[in-house]
Amino acid sequence: MALLASSLYGQGLDPRTLTLFKQPADCWPTYNGDYSGRRFSELKQINQDNVDHLKIEWMYRIRGVGPQRGVGDPTIKSTPLMVNGVLYFTIPDHIFAINARTGEHIWKYDFQDQGGHLVGQRGVGTYGTWHHFESPDD
Length: 138
Description:
Layout: E1 2-4, E2 81-83, E3 86-91, E4 94-99, E5 105-110, E6 124-127, E7 130-133
Antiparallel strand pairs: 1-7, 2-3, 3-4, 4-5, 6-7
């Protein structure tokens, strides 16, 4: 398991947020959104009457990543997390932090592959100022 200490922009999750049923609108800190497991947001701005007015405001393309061992082109298959307006997502051996409002690249972490078994990706976990993700065993 690779661990990253926080000293970068946009990090820092108050652990109390994980148990709130009314978490801040800029927060989706776990795979399920929170520990309730319900996997939906209580936000009301998007509904059946206006959903057809949604449009793409920005798109992020993964760059600077070589061929993925056994995977091909880098494809995001994990659930993105959002904390304090920053989206965090993974591809095998990499974590990305993107400004959720603008799509601006904030930072990227590259795990240095030592030839272990590629475990694919299961997303990033965030707790306090730490980010966790699966990496191959050496």
